[in-house]
Amino acid sequence: MAEEKKEEKKIIVDEDWKKEAQREKEILAAQEEEQEKKKAEEETRRGPLPQGNFAALISMLVTQAFFAMGLLQVKGEKKREPDLELAKYNIDMLETIEEKTKGNLTEEEKKVLENTLSQVRMAYVQVTEQVPTKTQ
Asked: Distance between CA 68 and CA 24 in Å, rounded?
């Protein structure tokens, strides 16, 4: 009786199962390859990144501030409400850079930072004047 139970528990692997498993494995490999191709294409479309320098850092923070104010938007996306808190944070970051780099910037870098801060502050004021205040 014990020998009969041992025989019942045998696992039989047929060729159809092996073929199905192999086909699924090939499908997964093809999907992974396709994802890698898409990722490579996206990186290629982006183009090379600019050299990291002071002006690029300032530009990055200003872009974030303008995006938060709703003055810039992603192509194809609907217009967003301004996030004034985030915009103010980015302006504060620029002010911190201005404060911490006093005396260490070239004349050109200093002018870029001053002019940029002036422009982003003016934009912030204009956007805050257009945003309706919340009543409590």
From this structure: 46
